[in-house]
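Tokens as discussed.
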């Protein structure tokens, strides 16, 4: 199932999936399954729950900004959704929290999603696109680890790649904006370290790493720009001060 482009739709899909989980499962297991992460990865689970809370408030904010709806009616589902996230105990049974995601709450989110979707101009990304980007990041990470890049640049690129990977994992929560933010941060880090990058590119044994990295960023830039229907940034190599080759 493709991730919806507007926040209410993403929130609906996530809560609907969580609602389908067995009552006696631990909260940890429920969210790990919903987010597609390892059950033992507490840090990632908590971070993604925090992202989900932000998604809730983003949805509310967009509903409140509408001037042609009954705000009291459209915001009613958020009373129980906010209670759902008011206390986080990953070792508790899911049943107590699951009861907060009842039919009126789900239906209310559907109405919010339908309304916001009418105003959305963003195109959804295909799962195949995301899978290909993830595969490319994994290959690049291995390439960097086996390269002769100086340790500081290795660390920089591996950190950037991991941030991009986390943005792809969180896509079902944050949508295209999360990927765009991490892409911009990656570019910014290269600009700040431009001289080191230029020196490495000048060396035969490291230029390939950066060329592959820039190719991935170019692809992400094209994907984001196409989805948001905006002009894409061009000339990444020129921006960093070295030529394509």
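Sequence:
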């Amino acid at each position: 199932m493709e991730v919806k482009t507007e926040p209410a739709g993403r929130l609906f899909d996530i809560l609907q999936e969580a609602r389908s989980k067995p009552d006696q499962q631990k909260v940890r297991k429920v969210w790990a399954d919903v987010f597609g992460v390892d059950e033992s990865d507490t840090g990632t689970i908590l971070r993604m729950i925090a992202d989900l809370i932000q998604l809730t408030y983003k949805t509310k904010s967009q509903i409140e900004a509408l001037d042609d709806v009954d705000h009291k009616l459209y915001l009613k589902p958020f009373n129980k959704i906010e209670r759902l996230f008011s206390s986080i105990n990953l070792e508790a049974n899911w049943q107590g929290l699951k009861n907060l995601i009842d039919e009126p709450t789900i239906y209310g989110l559907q109405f919010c999603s339908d309304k916001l979707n009418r105003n959305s101009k963003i195109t959804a990304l295909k799962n195949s696109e995301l899978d290909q980007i993830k595969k490319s990041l994994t290959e690049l990470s291995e390439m960097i680890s086996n390269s002769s890049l100086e340790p500081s640049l290795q660390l920089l690129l591996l950190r950037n790649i991991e941030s991009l990977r986390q943005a792809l994992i969180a896509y079902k929560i944050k949508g295209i904006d999360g990927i765009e933010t991490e892409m911009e941060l990656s570019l910014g880090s290269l600009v700040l370290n431009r001289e080191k990058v230029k020196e490495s590119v000048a060396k035969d044994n490291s230029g390939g790493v950066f060329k592959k990295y820039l190719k991935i960023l170019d692809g992400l830039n094209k994907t984001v720009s196409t989805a948001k229907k905006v002009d894409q940034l061009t000339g990444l190599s020129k921006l960093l001060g070295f030529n394509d080759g």
